């Protein structure tokens, strides 16, 4: 038995997998807090350092640039060192970046500190969902991986609440509070096990079985799962593996979800809601309080999504929720277009924003890390998830650099309508390219990739080829019986 399991010797099965997911998901809490706190702190930072709109966008975006670099670098590191050690490295970067950001005496130091925090966030977004997915049983994988996203939105909400409560204190306290969860993550991960799938990939089958025996309901289930892992285990594949036709459907589905999660506008709302609403006449304190409401809506939607991904399914959840996000943005844009953001119009504006937050966060934001962690074959899962996280952060970088400029150039109404159109496009994309992964083991999903039945469009083509072989009479062509289509 590995030493890392000693702290949880009294736990086993679902209890242990839940404990592991809870500790590792602290990386999501830091992810959410460190990206969200700039929304409140920016109001003070702009005044203290006399920042222009471009300067504010740069300070906001350095953390995203760091995340883009961090997630691409984390894939090879996690394949070589293991998922657990990579998360501990991210925790160490969180500690360093948080301390230096809180102590920053210039815009340059603050920007560099947020770049370091971005490296940590990128690494955490790449590896924590994989770690949880690889250690969780198939029937609970959805809700446990969504625990990471729940931690993200709880971190965002806590950052908004902190910004509101500390609006008359220094922005340095806003950053410094993030030190505590960073230490918890670093210390906690030191006592957790490695991923059994990573251990099997390294040929350490006995250690992999030790972990599986602790996190599965019975020895037979653990041994059968190890057999499935080993039977489909390949050596770590190079980046070029992701370009192969059989892997491409996973790449399209996961990267598409990652891009659309950002391009549909959710982080634009998170980063700039106080600035947008203050500019619309809400007043600084009211704008900050509105952000707290946005955060609470995110948490509630993610709680619901965590239930629905294993009850409804990942794909079904998105298709049921996302149309509501597009409609909400149309209404929100209309309120700004008609200048109805005062009096009763203010309530409609806030409710529309809240509805958009619930529908978008409860669908795409819930699914992004879960689908990305599920769909790739083991041989290139780390690198594939790096591309998922990289796509997410690349799109986030574009959004964070352009949102204020879009609002300034097009107006808030046209900006919200543009995001509404992207939400509508996302519905079409999911219908065509995103499969249902609920209830399948990771090895079963890999088998679907290999046999060409992964994406809905692929299955539709195969069904079409099958139907073309059926005689026009509608019989089976052998016994003359009617066929079931």
From TrEMBL:
Location(s) in or outside the cell: Cell membrane
Gene Ontology cellular component list: plasma membrane
Pfam families, sorted: Sugar_tr
Domain Major facilitator superfamily (MFS) profile span(s) in chain numbering: 20-438
Topology in the lipid bilayer: Multi-pass membrane protein
Keywords of this entry: Cell membrane, Membrane, Sugar transport, Transmembrane, Transmembrane helix, Transport
Membrane-spanning parts: 12-33, 53-75, 87-109, 115-132, 144-165, 171-192, 250-273, 285-309, 321-340, 346-372, 393-410, 416-434
Keyword Transmembrane in annotation: yes
Primary location recorded for the protein, binned into one broad class: membrane
GO MF, one annotated term: transmembrane transporter activity
Gene3D superfamilies per record: MFS general substrate transporter like domains
Protein family (similarity comment): Belongs to the major facilitator superfamily. Sugar transporter (TC 2.A.1.1) family.
Protein name per the record: Sugar porter family MFS transporter
Lineage per the UniProt record: Bacteria, Pseudomonadati, Pseudomonadota, Alphaproteobacteria, Acetobacterales
């Amino acid at each position: 038995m590995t030493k890392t399991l000693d702290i949880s010797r009294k736990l086993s099965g679902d209890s242990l997998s839940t404990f592991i997911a809870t500790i590792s998901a602290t990386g999501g809490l830091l992810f959410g807090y460190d990206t969200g706190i700039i929304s409140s702190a920016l109001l003070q930072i702009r005044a203290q350092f006399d920042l222009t709109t471009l300067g504010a966008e740069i300070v906001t975006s350095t953390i995203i640039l760091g995340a883009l670099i961090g997630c691409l670098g984390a894939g090879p590191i996690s394949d070589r060192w293991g998922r657990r050690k990579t998360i501990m490295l991210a925790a160490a970067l969180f500690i360093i970046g948080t301390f230096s950001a809180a102590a920053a005496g210039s815009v340059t130091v603050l920007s560099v500190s947020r770049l370091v925090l971005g490296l940590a966030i990128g690494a955490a977004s790449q590896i924590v969902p994989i770690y949880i997915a690889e250690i969780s049983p198939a029937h609970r994988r959805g809700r446990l991986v969504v625990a990471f996203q729940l931690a993200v939105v709880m971190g965002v909400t806590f950052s908004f609440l902190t910004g509101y409560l500390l609006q008359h204190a220094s922005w340095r306290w806003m950053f410094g509070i993030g030190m505590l969860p960073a230490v918890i993550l670093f210390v906690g991960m030191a006592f957790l096990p490695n991923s059994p799938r990573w251990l099997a990939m390294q040929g350490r089958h006995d250690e992999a079985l030790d972990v599986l025996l602790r996190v599965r309901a019975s020895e037979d289930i653990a041994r059968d799962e190890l057999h499935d892992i080993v039977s489909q285990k390949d050596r770590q594949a190079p980046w070029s593996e992701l370009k192969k036709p059989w892997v491409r459907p996973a790449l399209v589905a996961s990267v598409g979800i990652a891009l659309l999660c950002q391009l549909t506008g959710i982080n634009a709302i998170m980063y700039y809601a106080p600035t947008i609403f203050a500019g619309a006449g809400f007043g600084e304190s009211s704008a900050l309080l509105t952000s707290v409401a946005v955060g609470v809506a995110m948490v509630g939607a993610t709680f619901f999504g965590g239930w629905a991904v294993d009850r409804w399914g990942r794909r079904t959840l998105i298709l049921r929720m996302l149309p509501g996000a597009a409609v909400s943005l149309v209404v929100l844009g209309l309120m700004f277009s008609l200048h109805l953001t005062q009096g009763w119009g203010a309530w409609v504006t806030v409710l529309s924003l809240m509805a958009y937050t619930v529908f978008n966060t409860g669908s795409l934001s819930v699914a992004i890390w879960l689908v990305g962690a599920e769909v790739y074959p083991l041989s290139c899962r780390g690198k594939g998830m790096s591309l998922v996280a990289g796509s997410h952060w690349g799109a986030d970088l574009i959004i964070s650099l352009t949102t204020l400029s879009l609002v300034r150039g097009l107006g808030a109404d046209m900006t919200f309508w543009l995001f509404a159109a992207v939400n509508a496009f996302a519905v079409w994309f999911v219908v065509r390219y995103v499969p249902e992964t609920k209830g399948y083991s990771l090895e079963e999903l890999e088998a679907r990739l290999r046999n060409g039945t992964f994406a809905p469009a692929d299955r539709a083509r195969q069904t079409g080829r099958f139907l073309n072989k059926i005689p026009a009479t509608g019989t089976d062509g052998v016994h003359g019986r009617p066929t079931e289509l």
